[in-house]
Structures are given as structure tokens and as C-alpha cells.
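look at this fold:
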Amino acid sequence: MKLFTKIIAGQSLISWCLQLILIYLAWEVADHKIANNLYTISGAAVLLILIYLSLAHDNRHRQSKK
């Protein structure tokens, strides 16, 4: 678990992974490989919330080290 919280370029590895998953999802929708429906939009919304939470956690972790 320590690996996922390692800070790389100002963000944890889990933040980077979540962002890459969101980019992949958007790419697949743009290529019409995944339907643009309520399930896809809900999945993207959940990913955005998880990204926000991980970035907030990174910021809180960075502030506590100062």
C-alpha cells in the first residue's frame, strides 16, 4: 500500500492511475467502443470523485509533512 501513496510529480501513484483510467474511458467513448449512456457517465462521475479525494488526500499528506 505504501507504493500507491508514493508521491511522483506532486501526486500519488493512485491519483495517476485513476486519471489514466478516466482518459482511457474517455478515449473509448470517443472511438465509439463504449456506449455513451448513463452507466458510462456514472462511472466517469465516480472516477472524478475518487480522483478529487485522492488529490485532497495527497494535499493533506503534503501539508502534514511541513
Remarks:
- The beta strands are 7-8, 11-12.
- The mean pLDDT is 87.
- Residues 19 and 51 are 7 Å apart (CA to CA).
